[in-house]
Amino acid sequence: MDGRIRIGMCMGLDQVPSLAPGYDYVELGVSGTLIPLEDDPTYAPTADTLLTLEPPVRAFNLYLPGSIKITGPDVDWDLVQRYSRRAMQRAQEAGATVIVVGSGGARSVPDGFSHALAWGQLVRAFNIIGDEAIERDITVAIEPLNTKDCNIINSYVEGVSLARDVDHTAVRVLADIYHFMMDAEPVDDILTGPQWLAHVHLADTGRRFPGSGTYPLPRLFAILKEISYTGMASIECLWGADFADESGRALGFLRTLLA
Questions:
Q1: Rounded distance, CA 156 to CA 107, Å?
Q2: Nearest residue to 100 via CA among 241, 259, 231, 250
Q3: What is the 3-state secondary structure (H, E, C) of the chain?
């Protein structure tokens, strides 16, 4: 590692050939790409494809499908563990070092269910996920989601609080500027727990590509420099008709912030 922030792209596997050149890595979805609910023969063709991608895979998101609950009365802990074991094994084989766990559908607290009990369930879930990750040198990043997308862990500060309670070497926190902006959370909240930051997601106004709007991306990158962050930062946004052009413009803009 040379100490610089790597810039990557959250995307589908079918989009990779259209990505503008210059990105350091791609970030794909666990549930849709690694398909941990499927057996190895079904997954094998995808596994071969992932090993030949350029740029390479270094991160995954979209961890749990909504059908696998980690809060509420219907949690199947054996399934969570089996799923996590297969997901982490396949992620490692593909070359990933970070797994983002947002999974709003899986973690949202059911109506009438105790948030305190749900919090304890999340602690248990992230310990299960963390145990599978640490064996494979993967870091798990808890993704705080805005209040429209989920009803628990809605800020970076809350993400840090959960990570502290999980108390697992492999479990840290994601900072996603889109979710910050949706709930008017100051990006400076990162400074309340900078040691917990493991991964970053980027977007701009309207969840469009970086450089197209007025999100405080310069301030975010100033904070990353201030805390000597040297991890990865992935664009996760909505695209127009010309993905290749816009992904190139986004990368150019972000390179100016890294200068």
A1: 16
A2: 231
A3: CCCCCEEEEECCHHHHHHCCCCCCEEEEEHHHHHCCCCCHHHHHHHHHHHCCCCCCEEEEECCCCCCCCCCCCCCCHHHHHHHHHHHHHHHHHHCCCEEEECCHHHHCCCCCCCHHHHHHHHHHHHHHHHHHHHCCCCEEEECCCCCCCCCCCCCHHHHHHHHHHHCCCCEEEEEEHHHHHHCCCCHHHHHHCHHHEEEEEECEHHHECCCCCCCCHHHHHHHHHHCCCCCEEEECCCCCCCHHHHHHHHHHHHHHHHC
The predicted model scores a pTM of: 0.97
pLDDT given for residue 228 in this prediction: 97
pLDDT, mean of each 10-residue run, the chain (259 residues):
85 96 98 97 98 97 98 98 98 98 98 98 98 98 98 98 98 98 98 98 98 98 98 98 97 97
Residue type, 188: D
Q: Where on the phi/psi map is residue 194: left (φ > 0), alpha (ψ -120 to 50), or beta?
A: alpha
The domains found in the chain, sorted by start residue, are: 6-258 (3.20.20.150)
Distance, in Å, from the CA atom of 76 to the CA atom of 64, rounded to the nearest integer, reads 13
